[in-house]
């Protein structure tokens, strides 16, 4: 994956903008270029849940999914809430984010279906950022797929 | 707090208000084809509602509002979405609304407080 867009002279690292109000809600927005396409990421951290949006070359909302670890044996459940299906890009990304981070996630994603490398790159970057920001839960109990 | 970050295609606004004694965190995001409003008192998105305008050919627009995640038996939530989509429509925008409400109480006072706070800070 290529480097992110720089916002020179502002003291912000690679286009990342963090705005926090008393730790309840934190919004992080950043963009990265991947194979001539621009991926936009928006993460809204709430105390008990994460909302994330991934945009590919546009600011269209895309499909919406909910995913969370599910008792009793810590599997991951995914539900398509708006316009998506289990074979759409966002469904798999949402599921794997929960597997890798243990978070309860609502994901909106407009990445097209026919580009698996783009999907992989977007997911990798988002998971990386979630871990970097300290949002991922420690892997004390593994999530089963 | 209005955050139109340089170069980022989605504008958003974040604020925190007291509504009927409960701290309420509100985030409003403006996508190309949707408006997202999150209003939470419980630290999660709560119930998610989709509201859109349906253009009539000869009649005034009607609105379709449905719960897509969460409480389906709480009319105040649907009423809140309906009020906001009507405001969006009256402002000249035809973008649908995704409204997420995580509320501690579902009183009319809370509904009015949320509608008022969102409209005051609207991004459409």
Automatic annotation (TrEMBL), chain A:
Stored Pfam families: PAC4
Lineage top rank: taxon: Eukaryota
Annotated source species: Daucus carota subsp. sativus (Carrot)
GO biological process annotation, one example: proteasome assembly
Database matches in PANTHER family: PROTEASOME ASSEMBLY CHAPERONE 4 (PTHR33559:SF1)
Protein name per its UniProtKB record: Proteasome assembly chaperone 4
UniProtKB/TrEMBL annotation, chain B:
Taxonomic superkingdom: Eukaryota
InterPro entries to which the protein is assigned, alphabetical: Proteasome_assmbl_chp_3, Psm_Assembly_Chaperone
GO biological process: proteasome assembly
Residue ranges of coiled coil: none
Name the record gives this protein: Proteasome assembly chaperone 3
Species, as recorded: Daucus carota subsp. sativus
């Amino acid at each position: 994956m290529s480097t992110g867009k720089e916002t020179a002279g502002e003291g912000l690292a690679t286009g990342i903008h963090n705005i926090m109000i008393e730790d309840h809600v934190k919004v992080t927005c950043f963009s990265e270029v991947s194979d001539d396409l621009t991926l936009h990421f928006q993460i809204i951290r709430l105390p008990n849940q994460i909302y994330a949006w991934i945009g590919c070359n546009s600011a269209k909302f895309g499909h919406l999914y909910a995913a969370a670890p599910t008792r009793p044996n810590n599997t991951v459940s995914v539900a398509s809430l708006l316009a998506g299906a289990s074979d759409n890009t966002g469904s798999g990304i949402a599921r794997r984010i929960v597997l890798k981070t243990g978070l309860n996630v609502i994901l909106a994603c407009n990445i097209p279906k026919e580009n698996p490398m783009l999907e992989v790159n977007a997911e990798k970057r988002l998971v990386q950022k979630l871990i970097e920001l300290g949002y991922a839960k420690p892997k004390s109990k593994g999530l089963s797929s | 707090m209005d955050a139109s970050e340089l170069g980022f295609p989605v504008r958003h606004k974040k604020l925190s208000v007291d509504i009927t004694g409960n701290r309420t965190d509100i985030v409003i995001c403006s996508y190309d084809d949707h408006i997202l409003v999150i209003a939470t008192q419980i630290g999660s998105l709560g119930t998610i509602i989709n509201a859109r305008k349906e253009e009539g050919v000869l009649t005034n627009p009607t609105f379709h509002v449905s719960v897509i995640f969460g409480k389906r038996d709480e009319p105040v939530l649907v009423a809140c979405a309906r009020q906001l989509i009507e405001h969006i429509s009256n402002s000249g925008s035809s973008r649908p609304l995704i409204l997420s409400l995580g509320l501690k109480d579902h009183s009319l006072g809370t509904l009015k407080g949320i509608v008022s706070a969102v409209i005051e800070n609207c991004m459409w």
